[in-house]
């Protein structure tokens, strides 16, 4: 507590002794809207995982369902992305956001019916959009494949949530604006602006040629950093202090982290087009923006780490904390990796390869998705008034997803590096080097052989060398799927009140006195 | 209320500045690019797409070719794209002025296609490769696109555009495999992908 700089103090508008009652009322008022968002997000998570798995299998077994046009790789692949990003990611984020906003403003859920309607509209958009993709109606712009009619429904759903959040904020019974609220506010403001801009300039009255590419990646990248990241960070900033019972280490570091993110992230997107047919200044500006992102990332990493310090033992017990801390570490890793991936020397060999796919999964899965899982572990029992039914299923969820995503990241990172190195610098394929010189000799020969001639490895040799990595990736996808099914069952059991009733919180393992003391929900760490 | 106004202003301006930088200025810089006329040959570089080529581009988008194939010859440190023979020069913004939407791509599970029309001018090769990539590129992980072709009973004489499939790929005797309009359009589009013309700098 003494470690950080104190936060500016505000007089509480609600007496502290009334808080437990108010908190319980807020949680109850959030139940229907938040659970609708969570339930739909879980549905799309399962669908999206199956689509990802199918796309992954098709990459190494192209004959699999090869004669079904609806399920050709080029349709399953964008369907996977859209379903997991907009079907799973956004609804999960909305569910967390609604609850956080009510808790932090100390306001009971206003307009619960409108929020359920927003959820229905959004899900209709996802359903229609996904069917359209399978029917071949994709717009052909990465991250924006959904046809305009589906995109409009998504925009409408989003706008309702954004307006709701502003109205809730206006009625708040708490003067202090907590750091999570800045992030949510920014995300709710940035995303619609981004979305409307790209719909206008790419689809309704398209700009010319490569300018579209610049705008596409300005959107594609900002959708991650200016929408998913802020929501993930908002959840982390609220829940780490909540579970550990300690305040955020430094108010000023969180200020620094927020404003530098706002300033630099916006500029980073064009690093997707390094060495491509765009004006050089545009790419260079984005590389600078990407490197500057090290500042907000370091600020958040230090802040989270110092808040956790001394409480790492809680990771043994608390599912919320374990998932969120995993997510926070992945945020640091993916952001630092992302900054360096924007450097030309790193980007040129790894761009266009599975290395980038690995990076994308580190960000959207290991950081964002794991953080959402952690938040749901905390929020859902408070909405339903029931603890999770089984620590065994929780453990399956944890190990399936944490091992699955870690291995997937490794496999894609290494496989993608080999792919890129062979496509650019290597003078022979890794496979043929290993055949000639044995495993270790071959690797060193291969790696040292880049002085000869660039682009010398025949393309089919690169493809053949990728197959084992692609097979491994499918296996890691199965691990993720197992984890998701376990969590899905937990959710269903919780909502339907199946399984035996538990008094205390369900933990990963046993009970610990320190922990149960802290898990009374009234850890005064966060500002709510 | 001060806090919220400050947050709003900050969030607005940080975003607005980047919007001007990454959206507005590139648009203003590139919006007036025009095809260049090759006086000797009397052609336009690049030429606008023809009707069947636009249809072919729609098939390209529908089937998500872009998720495995880029359409850009990069410059840069390693220059491998040129060494590989994927192009005669680095791609230029001018090459894309008729592309709506652009298909620059972000993945090279398969090779770059910016110049596939120049690298592989044979229509027959494209049809065989699309029908089943194993016919032309054994070991390829590209999915087959047999659904773009029609297998039908030969009536009278074999059709001129029937695919010369051999061995395990051949249909049973008495049958032939012919491209649908979609297949023909896609091949017309692929053959059109060609950035080998020279660009005169400083005229744009």
Structure notes:
- The complex is a heterodimer of chains A (528) and B (204).
- Chain A has helices at 19-60, 73-105, 112-134, 148-170, 179-204, 209-244, 251-264, 280-292, 294-308, 319-341, 344-350, 354-384, 391-424, 430-437, 439-448, 459-495, 513-518.
- Chain A has a domain at 22-176: Four Helix Bundle (Hemerythrin (Met), subunit A) (Up-down Bundle).
- Chain A has 528 residues and is an all-alpha fold.
- With 204 residues, chain B is mainly alpha-helical.
- Chain B has two domains: 1-31; 37-192, Orthogonal Bundle (Cytochrome Bc1 Complex, Chain D, domain 2).
- Chain B has helices at 2-30, 51-62, 80-83, 116-119, 123-131, 181-192; strands at residues 36-38, 43-45, 149-153, 175-179.
- In chain B, the strands form two sheets. In chain B, strands 1-2 form a two-stranded antiparallel sheet. Chain B has a two-stranded antiparallel sheet with strand order 3-4.
- In chain B, helix 2 (51-62) crosses helix 6.
- The chains are: A mainly alpha (528), B mainly alpha (204).
- Chains A and B meet through helix 1, helix 2, helix 5, helix 6 and helix 7 of A and helix 1, helix 2 and helix 3 of B.
Q: Do you know the CATH topology of the largest domain in chain B?
A: Cytochrome Bc1 Complex, Chain D, domain 2
The greatest inter-chain interface is formed by: A-B, 87 and 76 residues
Report the structural category of chain B. Answer: mainly alpha
Distance between the termini of chain A: 17 Å
User: Strand order across the biggest sheet of chain B?
Assistant: 1-2
CATH architecture of the domain at 22-176 in chain A: Up-down Bundle
Instruction: Supply the helix-strand structural class of chain A.
Output: mainly alpha
Outline of chain B: elongated
Assigned CATH architecture of the largest domain in chain B: Orthogonal Bundle
| CATH classification, class level of the domain at 22-176 in chain A | Mainly Alpha
The CATH topology of the domain at 22-176 in chain A turns out to be Four Helix Bundle (Hemerythrin (Met), subunit A)
What's the helix-strand series of chain A? HHHHHHHHHHHHHHHHH
The CATH superfamily of the largest domain in chain B turns out to be Cytochrome c-like domain
The CATH class designation of the largest domain in chain B is: Mainly Alpha
Number of strands of chain A: 0
Count the DSSP helices of chain A. 17
Query: Number of helical segments of chain B?
Result: 6
- Main beta sheet strand tally, sense and closure of chain B: 2 strands, antiparallel
The mean pLDDT of chain A is 91
Q: What's the N-to-C terminus distance of chain B?
A: 51 Å
